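From the shared-data thread, chain only:
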Amino acid sequence: MRLRRPPRSASHTQGIGRYRESWPSSRNTEKVKFQDPESKAEMRAVILAAGFGTRLWPLTEDRTKPAIPFLNRPLISYSVAFLANHGIRQIIINLHHHPESIREALGNGSQYGAEIEYSYEEEILGTSGALDRVKDRLTDDDFVVMNGKIVSSMDLSAAIRHHRENRALATLVLRPNPARERFSIVEVDSNGWVTAFGPHPAPIEIESPGGHLKDVGGRQSTEAPQRAASSSVPERDARRGDDAAPLMFTGIQVLSPRIFDYIPRDSFSHSTVHVYPRAIQAGEPVIGYVGDDDWYEMSTLDRYLEASLALLRKSEPAVSRDLVVTGRGCVIQVGADVRESVLWDRVLVEAGARIERSVIGDGVRIPSGSNICRAAVVRRDRVLRIEQGTVVGENLIVPIG
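Structure, as tokens:
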């Protein structure tokens, strides 16, 4: 068995525009038959959405991370649509931090062609502890688990076929990380079996024109997401310092119900820390499926801003650097200068104010004369406890990066 990539096709989705509601969409590829012939159950999925979103603060002060708007839609709605477009409509979402923000954003899921069930955790249970809590709904057939903080057009149908063809315990959807961003390395052998989860890759250092070394692996590019360098999968230990890009985990996985043999009962646990290493040691087929389709992850302020701009650039390549995402009820007065920024709902930018490469939260007023650059700005009265940043008038300003 070898790691596989989905076939490249002219039908690959090209991106999302400001008002394009269909991305990520189903592709012109044959969908897998999800239902096990011996089972009457429809394949289910779990979206993990219980995290605190600490690295996205202050945007997560009054909502959980997957509920923040991404191109004017709740971030988690992209995960729901992604699953539904691949034929998976029975979805369980775990909740903890500001659970009402997810319920209000998605309701019962019908607007996205899904049926959503919620699992509230009084104490956060971790990425696999969350599965244990809903075990009774996941034992009839293979199921999918994915993070609620990503936007992707990965070929999930192909990953499911790969999982079933190889009778795997777990299939992790992986992608190359040529920029050596801060995602843990997934080590695989020449047969495509996952052998270990390593540290973050060493950053790439290049020589700048002044002769100094520059770290280019610490932040996400503003261009299109990473792509694999070739169509062949490098068969090497991902820790080696060769030219091949290390592999990283996308947060999308296909699991057999046998995974519950390795998940601790009634306790906190993480899949890559407490479950997969045990299964690997036991000789279970924990395998990789490598794709190089679009994939964005929004766990930090910087990644959120850069992903928003990158997707808009892809859909509107002729737009100049003043590219702006505006939510409902926003007003940018004549004489204001707003460039490469994300404005949530009801933002007022007064004449004479300047905003560049920033995220502005709901209901914020940017007064005339303000100069906001690489910052997240929220209303001060919405923040219970100031952890960082500076209060300026009625706003809290937190630097990005």
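Confidence is low (pLDDT under 50) at residues 1-41, 209-216, 218-242.
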